[in-house]
Design brief:
The protein has helices at residues 16-27, 129-135, 162-177, 183-189, 212-215, 237-247, 264-270, 274-279, 288-298, 304-310, 320-323, 355-359, 362-368, 385-392, 408-411, 413-426; strands at 90-94, 101-108, 114-118, 140-144, 153-154, 191-193, 230-235, 254-260, 284-285, 315-317, 342-344, 373-377, 397-400. It is α/β, with parallel strands linked by helices. It has a domain at 87-275 and 352-426: Rossmann fold, CATH 3.40.50.1820. Belongs to the AB hydrolase superfamily. Residues 1-58, 191-224, 305-338 are annotated as: Disordered.
């Protein structure tokens, strides 16, 4: 009881630690600890009160332990790299006439209108992976690596002018879907690519090349008949290029343009700070997993799955002989790093002279497009004056996604795909125009009448 003499007074045996513990227990009025049970074990139900032992009590008890219950937990932040085969059906290499290079193009879906997705500066076609997976059941999704990006190789990978890159888009479209191209030319210039790009966790087996007759109507082969209906979707730099390509009016049956998070006014205002942004990026990464982790933590991508498949397309591995040289590797490289480190594929610093050209006059060009158009933004604060007036006049559809960052298609791929599907359905892309039935011959058409009372004239 409180205030009583604690156990372990004079004459109590035990170690000094036991004496201190017993005195502390007594000082707080707590009961003394019970002695541990005898080695014989606790009695079981059905055991006699006279101390008789249950014959089954001494038998060893064996229980099944779930497998892996004592395994070491998976460390937090462990990254599993994505494989492009999970999202895309195949990728092809196309060589459009007069473009001086081989363009890598990811394809998903075999039928329906074409949705060509253009990535932003420094990204690759893989940035659209999660969106393509949602669209490919109804549409053909085409995502090229632009000049100087991803797996595309050209004679001049540093020509980032809007004229050159918008012409690249038109040439790729015409080569793959133009009516003037032939299946024979397609078979000669398009080769199926089986191995997964650098950074894939598990390379998938090579996809066999389809015969020309089978591929004649597919997205990788030019159509012999009328070209399919299509929509251009572009993010950031790719949004500007989509507008310039659409404004050229050289893509047949272009039935829509969707621009993702790029506005002339805010883009031009941000250009003076872009070099600081590029300088703040790591120059290289020891592994692709580290690159994905950095992308998520820095906010470059808020979706770990999207970053795991997109980041490998933005990097290239240093060659061993280049590792010791200054300035080796991709953009931002030059801070050292051992052989096998991953550097940026695109030299974004070299695109600086073209930045203003990408965006100057973009808002007016977007508003002047005659096809249906939509602007997807992360917030209304990104709208400039021209687009604000145009939106109030109903010249385009405005879609806001405030929970996403700049890479909307990576941060919110499901919602992005839903909005694209809604846009395609709303404007009946690829569908015949609505027709109204005509009355049979000899039947006078019924004209609408004004609702309301009929006043008799006297």
């Amino acid at each position: 009881m409180p205030g009583g003499r604690p156990p372990g007074g004079p004459g109590t045996t035990g170690s000094p630690a036991d004496l201190l513990r017993r005195r502390a227990i007594g000082a707080h009025g707590m009961p003394a600890p019970l002695a541990p049970p005898a080695s014989g074990g606790l009695g079981t139900l059905g055991e006699e009160e006279d101390g008789g032992r249950n014959p089954q009590a001494s038998a060893p008890v064996t229980e099944t332990v779930p497998a892996g219950i004592f395994a070491a937990p998976k460390p937090r932040g462990v990254v599993t790299l994505g494989n492009w085969h999970t999202y895309w059906d195949r990728k092809v290499e196309v060589q459009p006439a007069g473009r001086g290079g081989t363009f890598n193009v990811y394809l998903a879906g075999d039928s329906g209108p074409v949705v060509m997705c253009i990535h932003g500066g420094g990204y690759s076609g893989l940035t659209w992976s999660l969106v393509a997976k949602k669209l490919k059941d109804k549409y053909r999704v085409v995502a090229p690596d632009m000049r100087g990006h991803g797996l595309t190789r050209t004679e001049n990978d540093t020509d980032f002018s809007k004229e050159t890159m918008s012409d690249d888009i038109i040439a790729i479209w015409e080569h793959m879907f133009g009516a003037a191209a032939t299946a024979a030319a397609s078979a000669a210039s398009i080769s199926a690519e089986g191995p997964a790009p650098s950074g894939d966790s598990a390379p998938a087996p090579s996809a066999p090349s389809a015969p020309a007759s089978a591929a004649a109507g597919g997205p990788g082969a030019p159509a012999a008949d009328a070209p399919p209906a299509g929509v251009l979707v572009g993010h950031s730099m790719g949004g500007g290029l989509a507008v310039w390509a659409g404004a050229a009016k050289r893509i047949k049956r272009l039935e829509g343009v969707v621009v993702v998070d790029v506005v002339e006014g805010t883009a031009l205002a941000a250009l003076p700070h872009m070099m600081n942004v590029l300088a703040g990026r790591p120059s290289s990464f020891p592994s692709l997993e580290e690159a994905v982790t950095w992308a998520v933590r820095s906010g470059m991508s808020r979706n770990r799955e999207a970053a795991a498949v997109s980041m490998p397309g933005q990097l290239q591995q240093q060659e061993e002989e280049e590792a010791g040289g200054a300035g080796a590797g991709g953009a931002g490289a030059g801070g050292g790093g051992g052989a096998g480190r991953w550097t940026w594929r695109t030299h974004l610093e070299l695109s600086r002279p073209y930045w203003e050209g990408w965006y100057t006059g973009l808002s007016e060009a977007f508003l002047q497009l005659t096809c249906p158009k939509a602007l997807v933004l992360a917030g209304t604060d990104r709208l400039d004056r021209a687009l604000t007036i145009g939106q109030m006049q109903g010249k385009f559809q405005l879609i806001l996604m405030p929970t996403a960052g700049h890479a909307i298609q990576e941060d919110e791929p499901d919602r992005t795909a839903e909005h694209l599907l809604g846009f395609l359905k709303r404007f009946r892309v690829g569908e015949p125009p609505l027709t109204f039935p005509r009355p049979p011959a000899g039947v006078r058409p019924v004209l609408p009448v004004v609702a309301g009372p009929v006043l008799e004239q006297k």
